[in-house]
Amino acid sequence: MTLNTSTRPVSLLVLIVVQTLCAAFFLWDVAVDGFDMGVAAFLSSHFVIELLAVLALIAGVIFETRYLFALLGRKAHLEEQLGLAAGAFHDIVEARFDTWALTPSERDVAHFTLKGFGIAETAELRGTAEGTIKAHLNGIYRKAGVTGRGAFVSLFIEDLMALPQPVDTQPA
Question: How far apart are CA 125 and CA 127, in angstroms?
């Protein structure tokens, strides 16, 4: 069973809550045994093992909680960086389209091309003939100074690779 990313933190939080309740129960049980037995409890190997198990469970809950919050923080950071990258790519695309003076129809076809749609798919999505899409693509390629789809897409990949990489301040 695969969980989507939005349910993972909730699942982990539920697990942490259950483990916390178990730790509280076992801590209460060890405390009652310790009060009943007094100092002699620490001479009993069974009591000491239970006490160590409870302490390990509590330490595990604390570790899991801290780790979950660190992961959620990292996820938020990565989502922010992805949003910045998507925005930068959009800006690069629009600047290139402005430089080439693409018409609105050519822009639309160019966006579909960058998204990886073929001629037939683009024609279907735009409700036009494949010949119209081919004509738009020829105009786009001519204005961009390239000879085909691969060279057109590589213009944008080169622009992305030339961008300064954001500094990752989060520990790995």
Answer: 6
Instruction: Compute CA distances 128 → 100, 121, 132, whole Å.
Output: 23, 10, 7
Question: pLDDT tens-digit profile of 152-171?
Answer: 999 888 877 775 555 555 55
The number of beta carbons lying within 10 Å of the beta carbon of residue 106 is 19
Q: On the CB side of 153, how many CA atoms lie within 13 Å of its CA?
A: 10
Residue 162: other Cβ atoms inside 10 A = 8
Read off φ and ψ for residue 149, nearest 5 degrees: -60, -45
Q: Which residues does 109 contact at the CB level (< 8 Å), separation at least 6?
A: 122, 126, 133, 136, 137, 140
Cα–Cα dist 30/44, whole Å? 12
Q: What is the dihedral of CA 141, 146, 150, 152, to 10 degrees?
A: -60
